[in-house]
Amino acid sequence: MEDIVIAGISGRLPESNNLEEFWLNLFNGVDMVTEDDRRWKPGLYGLPQRNGKLKEIDRFDAAFFGVHPKQAHTMDPQLRLMLEISYEAIVDGGINPVSMRGSKTGVYIGVSGSEAGEAFSKDPEELLGYSMTGCQRAMFANRLSYFFDFNGPSTAIDTACSSSLLALENAFNAIRHGQCDAALVGGVNLLLKPNTSVQFMKLGMLSPEGACKSFDASGNGYCRSEAAVAVLLTKKSMAKRIYSTVLNAGNNTDGYKEQGVTFPSGEMQQRLVRSLYQDANITPEQVEYIEAHGTGTKVGDPQEVNGIVSVFCQSQRDPLLIGSTKSNMGHPEPASGLAALAKVVLSLEHGVWAPNIHFHDPNPDIPALTDGRVHVVSEPIPVRGGIVGINSFGFGGSNVHVILRPHGSKSLAQAAQPSVPRLLQASGRTEEAVTSLLNNAQQHKDNPSYLSLLNDVSGVPTAGMPYRGYALIGAQGELTEVQQAQPTPRPLWYICSGMGTQWAGMGRSLMQLPEFRESIQRSDVALKDTGLCVSRLLMDADESTFEDTVHAFVGLAAIQVAQIDMLQKMGLQPDGIVGHSVGELACGYGDGSLSHSEAILAAYWRGRCIKEANLPPGGMAAVGLTWEECKAQCPQGVVPACHNAENTVTISGPQDSVSKFVAQLKESGVFAKEVRSAGVAFHSYYMASIAPALLCALQNVIKSPRPRSARWISTSIPQTDWESPLALYSSAEYHVNNLVSPVLFQEGLNFVPDNAVVVEIAPHALLQAILKRSLKPTCSILPLVKRGHANNLEFFLSHVGKIYMNGINVDSNKLYPTVEYPVPTGTPLISPHIQWDHSQVWDVPKVEDFPAGSGGSTSATVYNIDMNPESPDYYMIGHCIDGRVLYPATGYLVLAWRTLMRSLGAVMEHTPVIFEDVTIHRATILPKTGSVQLEVRLMPATNRFEVSENGNLAVSGEFPTHDHTDILAVSARDIYKELRLRGYDYGKTFQGILESNNSGDYGKLHWTGNWVTFLDTMLQMIVVGLSGRSLRLPTRIRSVCVDPRLHEERVNEYADDQKAVDVHVNRYLDNITAGGVEICGLHATVAPRRQQQQTPPTLEEFAFVPCVDSDCLRTSEKLGDQLRHCKGATESQLIGAEAEKGLLRLLSVLCGLELNGNLRSELEQTVEKERDCLLQDPLLNGLLDSQALRHCLDTALENSTPGKLKVVEALAADGHVFSRAVGLLNIQPMLRLDYTASDVSIDQLSAHQSSLEEQGISTAQWDPLQGPATGSLDGADLVVCNCATGHTANPALLIENLTSAAREGGFVLLHTLLRGDTLGETVAFLTSQNNQEGLLTQTEWEELFQKASLNVVMLRKSFYGSALFLCHQRQQSPQDQPILIFVDPTDYKWVETLKVINKVSIKLKFTISKLQPSLRWHMQHLANHLVLLLQVCIHFEYNAHISNSNQQLIDMLKSLPYNNFFFLSFLIIRCHNMGEKHLSLLRFHHDINHANSVYIYIYLCLMIFLFICSNSVLLYIFLFYVFCPSVAAPLDSIQNLAAYYIECVRQVQPEGPYRFAGYSFGACVAFEMCSQLQAAKCPVEYLFLFDGSHSYVAAYTQRYRAKLTPGKESEAETEALCAFIQQFTGIEYNKLLETLLPLSDLEARVNKAVDLITSSHKNVSRDMLHFAASTFYHKLKAADRYVPASKYHGNVTLLRAKASSEYGDGLGSDYKLHEVCDGKVSVHVIEGDHQTFLEGEGVESISGIIHSSLAEPRVSTREG
């Protein structure tokens, strides 16, 4: 009898979404039982706090399983889980569930009940009938059989805890006895209804601690748990993987037991187990491990284990291993058997027995645990490969045992690296599901068995799994693609190309594929009599090989046949075939009407006959004419030969005539280009002379012509003649006719369906551009090979993947060596990696949904007060009053409390309660024996309760509902502002409240020793908490108690040497306590206020902050992938992307354009033709399709006239905002929307006319680039314009005219692309031929808005550079102009002017060349007065050449006492003669760079930043670009240089904290200084790095080192000095190299460098230049060797140039600073490149960032 095996498995278990997580939890000893309120509040009804719960039970992919939403909401979550995991279990076995439809497969599900059914059907008024089919236990099996279309037995089984293992036993025996061929077995359990747990608790079965302590002495019951597990059972011959073989399975029942029905019978368990092993001829010694039922109960464990011992441990043997998964996850009752099976299967797969937890002390009632016969697996133990048994016992006496044998296949070994990339296909419900599966496969790329299984299950119909993707495992690049496929089946069409596709190297890379190679070898056999060997021809071809027509035709045909062979091997059969010219031979082969040898030999003879015909020189050319135009214009002798496309024809004729005609067409502006045809005028009248010879030859090849099928569309016979004898057969006559007739390719393409997947069969994808122009955009056009591609093997495989991705099933496993099934043990599971569409949340019953868990709204809850001695209520006998036992008044309250908690599903012990207005109406007398019934009713509408006895009201009361306001801290300043508004104008002495919460019941009071002010402050505290703003005066106090000694003890220290005491206000007790004072019963009376005495409150500050989100859509993986494809796609990757929508398709179409003189015009025409690509592009429309548009519209709507909104959209035909905006605005039910769509002309809106009318949108003519809005268009509340899809020639005019349409106070909404981002630059290039004047940065747009009197109120900017600006038109008001003060006069009277000017912007302007020696005084004088001008923004502007006079400025700056400065923004030195900038630099540094300087001055690309704060801490900026260190500075290493500068800094500033910055190479110095100061425990407050880091330096030095010969220092010296010289001169690099390299040593090269520089700069010091040049070289050497020795623990701010240099590429956004920093790394991107980012706008950005950083509180390293 054939073995029955476990072939697939899946599950959800506590804290484990899949079996992979489950194994990790098991192996790591994780306790999967948790305490939380996912089902009910811990401790409800006195239940144990802990239980095992699944992570997610409210998610379900209803659409995939064909479940209607109404049905899904009332379907038992257990059944929802079973549907998903059953599918996963089948797929886990490597079986496509579609292949099992209609099979004799059984379904056996173990399930004990449907608690959800009870909840979903509790209200008969709401029943729809769906809960019947969704919750009946029979449906747990029947629904699965229905969905999968299984025709075998379908049974739900309930034997309590043994249900699921009994289901496995039933399935095993059903397959064994032929009732079914395979079976799906499942078990499921969810804990939804707490009452069920209460019953188990009352029976004494549950562990109070909520833990199954299996086999442990402390075992005291089990913990309930959830689980859902499904396994696929099949015959061995059907299995692709085998987890284990089921050797035997059986069940029995305890029968009658004196101890009761729930008492386990060890004897019956033994009897069952013994009989099963005897039947299977298995001796006890062969058994290695028993997975026991092992619930951890006092009775159950000894009964079970002692029975096991009596069966397996009666002879000498190794200790028997036992375990129980219940210790790890709790007891999932009906699912426990399969949960145990899952643990066993996973242990066998991983080769390790998973350990039990909670086992510490062996149960003394199980002697075998202590004498060594049985060993509990409490730590991972290797699997030895013996027999395994699994127990499962129901608490009603149903016992089941299953015997398993581990799969004997070899374990997975490390596979050899595959020689060719492996194509992997995957389908899924969502894009994320497919991506996840492909990523997982990449992790197992060396496991062909796993990859083969994944491919086997990939062919699910796209209607169910709409997303498809592929990956090339082992490819040179990460080739992965995912897209949504069409839900309906698509036809597959082959296009077989003709001449012109041959090229040297074609087919070589594909020879690595066995199927391709074997097909080529079959071609060799066919040609053996001709002496031609195709395989050798392809492998040895050079550029001239295929000039020979025989070689060309044979090579072309052989490759096409081999491609068709490979596709056919993968299960592909075309629905249609079209051939171009000689490509019809491949059509015949693909159609089956030509054999392999016939097709190859026909190509051979075609070529040979042409070659031997000695035809006159012929030529062919492609021309941009229609077929009719071509026939009319062709000169004598030239004929139209191939009708390729509507306006593309190939002409043929004499060489000279063709060349002359081509020249004429080019002159007249018509596209024309000669094509290679080996000097033959194919398809011309020249071919007629060849026909007889070719016919004779082909008749010998095609001896018995076969009929052509209807799928082969002829391109050599007009459609009118398709019924002629010539057209019916693939005969010699047909193929001769093909040679002598025109190619009617365009006519053939007309038959290709609109949704076809079109594959070009050719050695090179020559026809892609033609196909894309001729076929509908809905077709997917895919090449297989491309001339000159770097890796055509990967190209071919990736496009086979695209065929699959477009909805055609492909069996790519056929391309690779056959994987032997079943796969080896250890092959990864598939089931954990299947993801569903869980976007929808479905109903799950809650505690309150169960009748027993709720008191209902007004229904009574009855309590029996039993006074018998054994009753828990008997203690009340002690409540005896006046000789009678009365029910305590508090007892009524507890009953009401308990009832309230039940109605809320809350736990009494954890939930506070308040009783109010309690009235005791009568007493209840308790009898000495017997009971009394008390009824409690809750009335939710009034929050009242009533307790009654025999219908008589005993007690009533109320549960008040108080709104608990969040407690907020209020400062003393705000407290006294509030009190002042109420009329209390307290002076400082009476402002004693230091702090309070917002409710006024707690705070701190100031204690000064003055009892008067203190007691008054206490009274103030009472007022703070009162509502309203009336003035209240104290009129009565019940009591005041003061204890001075206690008061002194309670006084505490407060901030700023103040003393304080805590104050508490209790409004229930009507008292206030502070320190040793208690005031009770204060009565304050409202007093009239004298309004004239109180000035109205003044609004101190009202600041508008725009709402900005600069990183929208970042979480959209789809848009991220789209952007990556657009940015990173090579031409080869774009081929086939025409099936995409949007920009990707447009780029793909453009890649098909021919490179010729007409490229520009073709580009324009193509972009215009494919304009819809831009209009539909998901990236361009990303913001409009997101919530960002709604946010903008809502803002405009909320700030416009209520109830109506006038909207005008400009350029609406392309902008198309109306299609989105109207729907969003019409959400407002009472809004009267007046929406007008306008464009340059009304005609442009005609295409949208029906849509506009349907939405009630009017139309108008307006061109905002020509003039302002007029007539009905002005006065709009909102003006909308989307200019992201087109070029904006004049943005300033556009904004001005858009603003004209808005009313005063109206809004303008602009959607556009930004300069500096790839998307914007690309679209601008495509739409404006690289004229990018209209493409602006965000800052430039904002400047235009400012000029047009628009305030940006909202900005939504995508991560890829599109932006939505919502602007508000402000009222026009004269702006304050800055006062310009000329300070050149030496009388300095302008200083007096400054003293009287306030709150204005001042520009001080003077000429540096006119500086007088007395300027030092005037600058100091100004600095001393700056403190007086706190609200004046002072901007120093120097207009001058930098010349020797800058020494005067330097001297002046050095002498300034910086502690006199309050604020100096920055100093701008404008240099008119840029050629001298570096020379001036050197003089500057040479003179001031001394250790005893007041500052270390660093020139930073024409900027000097001086940041000076109140404590005089300086910011040191280190430049290392052309920086000349002083002579004393060591240059042997960055570390020593940094140490030297630390000493320099300490002479200026002995103590920290320090602030440092470094630019470019100086970043290394600054970073190392901070690291060394950190090691010395000196505080560093800030570190700013300007476009540099250790990695940036390394990238530069490595690049320049790469040019050098190792060991040749002369080359390194030359390279460094070339870079140095080019800072000052324009001498070309090569000339410098020729000059410097031959020199003898560094000294000679430095001298030569000085000569070269001083030849053009006469007045520069040679000594200074010599020093600078030599130190520059040594600096490079030091930087090249620099590696940070340790991590820096502080925070770093990197200001990075946006246009990254070649050194910055690949370093990541933070230049790899995260590798050497533990603290926070903040990255700011500044416009510009490595040099220009320190100029103009970049400087302003940097200044703002540094100022903001210095102003804000520091983030500690720990926080960072």
UniProtKB/TrEMBL annotation:
| Residue span(s) of domain PKS/mFAS DH | 845-1093
User: Active-site residues?
Assistant: H879 (proton acceptor), D1016 (proton donor)
User: Which segments cross the bilayer?
Assistant: 1456-1473, 1494-1523
Q: In which pathway does it act?
A: Lipid metabolism; fatty acid biosynthesis
- The identity of this protein, by name, is Fatty acid synthase
UniProt-listed Enzyme Commission number(s): 2.3.1.85, 3.1.2.14
For this protein, the record's Gene3D superfamilies field holds: 3.30.70.3290, 3.40.47.10, alpha/beta hydrolase, Malonyl-Coenzyme A Acyl Carrier Protein, domain 2, Polyketide synthase dehydratase, Vaccinia Virus protein VP39
Q: Where is the Ketosynthase family 3 (KS3) domain?
A: 1-406
Q: Which organism is it from?
A: Sinocyclocheilus grahami
Which gene is the coding source of this polypeptide chain? Answer: LOC107565779
